[in-house]
Fold this protein.
Amino acid sequence: MRWQRIAVLILILALMLLGSCGRPSTALRIGVRTANDHVPFYISDREGFYRTEGLSVTTYLVPSNTEIVEALQRGDFQVGAVPVTTAIAAIDQGAHLRIIAMTGRGGDGLLVRQDSGIRDWADLRGKQIATIKASILDVLLRQALQENGLDPDRDVTLVYFQKLGDMISALQTGQVDASSNTEPFMTDAEQQGWGHILGYYTEQWPDHPCCVVVAREDFIREHPDELDAVLRCHVQAVERANADPNYTAAVIVEYLEAFNVPLVEASLSLDKMRVDYAFSADEIMRMARLMQAQGLLEHEPDTLPLTESSPLARVLEGR
Amino acid sequence: MSAERRGSNTIAINWRGLLLLAGLAGIWELVPRVGLVDAVLLPPFTQVIGRLGSLLLSGSLWPHIGASVWRVLLGYGLALLVALPVGLYIGLREQAEKWLGPLTQLLRPLAPPAWIPLAILWFGIGNTPAVFIIFVGTVLTLLLGTIGAVRDVDKHLVQGALTLGATRTQAVFQVVLPAALPELLTMLRLGLGLAWMCVVAAEMVAVSRGLGFLILEARNTFNTTTVLAGMIAIGLLGLGMDVGLRQLQRRLLRWQAGRKAYGVLGDPRAEQGLSGLA
C-alpha cells in the first residue's frame, strides 16, 4: 500500500514536470535584458503601447541572454530580445526561433585604462584583453583584432569573464589591460576619468547589428496578428526613442535602476550606437559567417533558418 | 557504478546501482526521443554520451579535466589544511567556539558565486581566485564537521587515557583523533563533493580552461549537449574521487566492520532476530 502511494506520487510529479515543459502560455510574455538598446521594449511597456494594441503583455527583465533563449525555447516567452550572436547560436543548436527585427546597432567597443599608454590597436600586442567567450563582444573583438593586424590567439591573451561588471572591475584594478565592453559602461568609465575608449567595432563594421528581436516559430505561425501588433509597438517605440534621446535616457535609467540620465544620453549619441527596428537577412548572414569562421557554429550558416522578415515588412507596409 | 573492494583483491560491482543508472539513462533517452521534452532543452542520453566521447577522443576535454582536478585538489587541500587543525583546536576548547562560532555561522551561508567580485579584486585573475572560491566554499563545512567530530568523542575515553598517564598530546593524537576518525572521514567525502560543486562557480572567474568554463562557454552558445557532457564529466570525476576516499575509509576503519547499524533494519533476518530478542 505504501509503495502504491509512493508510485502514484511519483507519477503525479512526473506528469506535472512533463506538463510544464515546452508549453506556451496564453498571456504574451516578452523577455528582455537590462541593456541600452532594449529600450524600445521599456518604452512600449511604460507608455502602454501594448494595451493600445489590445495586447496583454508582461515584459520581463532577465539578467542574462541565455536565460532569455532558454525561456523562449521552453515557451515561457513568445518574444525576446538578445544579441544577434546569441540568437544565431541558439538557432544553430536547433532552437525554434527566428530573428524578426532589430533593436540596436553598434554600442560595443574596446575600453582601456586612461593611464595604460594604449592609444592604438597595435599597442595591444602582448596585452591581456577581457571578454565574454562566444558573445557578440568576443566575435567583434576578434574581428577587430584581425583587421588591425593582430592574431587573437597569439598576439594578445584573451581573458574570459561571464559578466560585464566583472570585466570593468578587472580593468579598473589593472588585472587586465583592456576590455571588450558595451555602452553605457564605456562612456561611464571615460566620464569617471579612468577609462579610454580605444574604438568602437563600428569602425570595422559600420552600423553592425547588436541586439535583435526573436520570436518562437510557433508564435510567428499561429499568432500573426499578435506578432504584428508587437512589432507595431516596437517600431513606434524605436521612433520615439530616436526622436528624444533625453527621454530615452531617462527611461533606460528608470528600468536599469543604474547610471544617470546625462551619462546614458551621452552613450546614446549616434557615433556610438543607435536603436533600430529594420534589419536585412544579409547582415545577419554576415554575422553568422563570422561566427562560423571563429568556430562557434556547428552548421553551415546558409542551411540555418535565421530570419523571418515578412511580419516586419507587413507592419511597415501597413503604416 | 561504484566498485566495492571485497577482501584484498576482488572488486564487486554494484549491479543495483548500475541497473538504476541504466534505467534512468533509458528514460532520459526516451523522453526527448518521443517528444515529451524538447530535445533542444534535453538532448537524448546517447547524444550527450557521444559528445562526451568525441570530446575525450579529440583530446579537447583533457585540458579542461586537468585544470578542474588541479583546482579542486588545491582548493580542497588548502581547506583541509586550515579546517582540520583549527577544527580540532575549537572542538577541544569551549571558549574558542564561543569566539569563532558566530563568525563561521555568519560566513557559511554565503554561496561561492558571491565571493567572485572580491576574489577578482583580492587575487586578480587566473587560477588563484578560482582556487580561493573552492577553498572558501568548502572550508567552513569542513571546519564545522571537524568541530562536530571532535565534540562527539566520548569524554570517558579521554578521561580514561589521562588517568592511565597519557599526556594531553597523547590523548589528542592517540584517543581523540582515532575516535573522531569515522566522522572525519565522512566529512572528508562530503567536503570533496562540495569542492566539485564549487568548480563551476570557481571557473566563472577569468579562466580559459576547466570543466566549469566548458559548461559556461557551451551555455553561451546554447549548446545543451556539451553542457550536459561537461556535467557528466564532473559527476564521473567526483564519483571516482569519492570511490578512492571510500577505499581509504574502509581501510582505516577496518575495526568498525560488523559494528555498524547500517543495513540491519533492511535485513529481514536481523529484524526477526531483534523482535525475537524483544
